[in-house]
């Protein structure tokens, strides 16, 4: 349910940003707001507290973000506060980013490895996957030691498992079947 609601807010924000040709700026500023709220526990606590008046929350938003963030993002936050939906802001940002990427023809790829990728490795991976998919890619990397080795690549809702952990799990399954 909250995904559908987040998608509606993101769609409205995206349409306004597209019309004003500020999609990139709005995306960047939404990321900034999300990071700021998540990194400051007090701010997050105040914004999510049900007994704090909406007017007070909006005043805090104005004070904290008005100089750093454009009108569209501040207005989105105020609308979310008015409808008691502050908690879905990150979901709205995710949906907005997906819409912006689709608009730009960019595919977001999440690559999980056991150790951090070097910049050259990221560039080579982006080039290779980009040629394969015939798209521009935005690669985000994650580190998970449980991967052991290899790559776990998520493109949209598809998952490509080239990890040692995945290979070991498949091998284990084959052994069970062979018994």
Task: Kindly give the count of domains.
Answer: 2
Low-confidence stretches: none
The percent range for strand residues is: 15-25%
CATH architecture of the largest domain: Orthogonal Bundle
* Helix and strand composition category: alpha+beta
Strand/helix succession: HHHHHHEHEEEH
Number of strands: 4
Helix content class: 55-70%
What is the CATH topology assignment of the largest domain? Peroxidase, domain 1
Indicate the CATH class of the largest domain: Mainly Alpha
Average pLDDT taken over every residue: 89
Strand order of the largest sheet: 2-1-3-4
Described by strand count, sense and barrel closure, the largest sheet is: 4 strands, mixed
Task: Please give the count of helices.
Answer: 8
CATH-level-4 superfamily name of the largest domain: N-terminal domain of the delta subunit of the F1F0-ATP synthase
How would you summarize the topology of this molecule?
Blueprint: H1 2-19, H2 23-39, H3 41-48, H4 54-65, H5 71-82, H6 89-104, E1 106-113, H7 119-133, E2 136-143, E3 150-155, E4 158-163, H8 164-178
Parallel strand pairs: 1-2
Antiparallel strand pairs: 1-3, 3-4
Helix pairs in contact: 1-6, 2-6, 4-5
């Amino acid at each position: 349910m909250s995904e559908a609601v987040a998608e509606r807010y993101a769609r409205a924000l995206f349409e306004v940003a597209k019309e004003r040709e500020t999609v990139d700026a709005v995306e960047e500023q939404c990321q900034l707001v999300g990071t700021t709220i998540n990194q400051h526990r007090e701010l997050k606590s105040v914004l999510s507290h049900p007994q704090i008046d909406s007017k007070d929350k909006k005043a805090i938003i104005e004070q904290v973000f008005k100089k750093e963030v454009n009108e569209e993002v501040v207005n989105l936050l105020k609308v979310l506060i008015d409808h008691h939906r502050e908690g879905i802001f990150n979901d709205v940002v995710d949906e907005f980013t997906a819409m912006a990427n689709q608009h730009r023809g960019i595919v977001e790829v999440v690559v999980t490895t056991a150790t951090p990728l070097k910049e050259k490795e990221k560039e080579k991976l982006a080039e290779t996957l980009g040629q394969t998919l015939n798209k521009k890619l935005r690669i985000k990397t994650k580190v998970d030691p449980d991967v052991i080795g290899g790559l776990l690549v998520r493109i949209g809702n598809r998952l490509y498992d080239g990890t040692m952990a995945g290979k070991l799990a498949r091998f284990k399954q084959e052994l069970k079947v062979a018994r």
